[in-house]
Design goal:
Blueprint: E1 10-11, E2 16-18, E3 33-43, E4 50-59, E5 61-63, E6 70-72, E7 76-85, H1 90-101, E8 107-112, H2 117-127, E9 132-137, E10 142-145, E11 148-152, H3 153-166, E12 169-171, H4 178-186, E13 189-192, E14 198-201, H5 210-225
Parallel strand pairs: 3-8, 7-12, 8-9, 9-11
Antiparallel strand pairs: 1-2, 2-3, 3-4, 4-7, 5-6, 10-11, 13-14
């Protein structure tokens, strides 16, 4: 294979992407690893439905134009799946999530663990479903301790908004229910606190915006929680 030939990518089981050089000695030391992975966000419903959104995260190696030297190409994050689920039993919801994840290669999962989400996080732990447990707070900070994450809701939503504005995050043109998702995102608007601070507020009366929150969690996983380098390999541990 020469640098001018069309790319023939090899996707490894752990989600890393390789641009093979056919072991040409001239290519030694120039191979870089891209990736194809999936970030899943889950917003846990209380009286309203829960929602799952999946973002496909892709970045492929390419030739730089200097011999066999390789570099990473443009990173693309695309919403490829969404659904709302009306299940009130945590065990039933965990079972549904497990069935979904079993069909997704190289996934990570971030859930809203605020309030009633904390017991559900424990249910996922008992089921062997690895996940980021994200508690939304006021303020503007994000902290991580193991798989426990504390994130300001404003930061969570602004991160999604910036991704959509810059097109670092896009919605697949053929996504089922695409307009419903875009309508939910549009319910968020800039507000002012009693202290005069600007904050993002969303889901006005009659607007739960559960899928928009699930998308924000999935994209937060891509941008802040999961490393950009190396493999991502989450599995359902002992799930039956």
């Amino acid at each position: 294979m020469t640098p001018d030939a069309p790319p023939a990518y090899q996707i490894l089981k752990d989600g890393r992407v390789v641009l093979p050089s056919n072991a040409d000695p001239a290519a030694a030391g120039h191979v870089v690893y891209g990736w194809v992975r999936h970030h899943c966000g889950l917003d846990l419903g209380r009286n309203d439905p829960s929602a799952i959104v999946v973002v496909r995260d892709e970045c492929y190696p390419e030739y730089s134009g200097r011999g066999f030297e390789q570099r990473l190409g443009e990173r693309r994050c695309t919403v490829v799946f969404q659904e709302s689920i009306q299940l009130f039993s945590y065990t039933d919801l965990a079972d549904h999530v497990a069935r979904r994840l079993a069909r997704i290669p190289n996934w990570t999962l971030a859930i809203d663990a605020s309030g009633l989400g904390a017991p559900f996080s424990s249910t996922l732990d008992l089921a062997g479903i690895e996940h980021w447990s994200v508690v939304m707070t006021a303020g503007a900070n994000l902290t991580k301790k193991g798989k426990q994450v504390t994130c300001a809701k404003t930061l969570l939503l602004e991160n999604m908004a910036v991704g959509l504005e810059t097109r670092a995050l896009t919605v697949a043109h053929d996504l089922k229910g695409k307009q419903d998702l875009l309508n939910e995102i549009a319910t968020f608007e800039l507000g002012t606190t009693s202290a005069g601070n600007l904050v993002l507020q969303g889901g006005g009366k009659g607007h739960h915006a559960d899928r928009a929150i699930a998308l924000a969690l999935a994209y937060l996983s891509a941008t802040h929680l999961d490393g950009n380098a190396g493999p991502v390999q989450n599995t359902l541990l002992g799930w039956r």
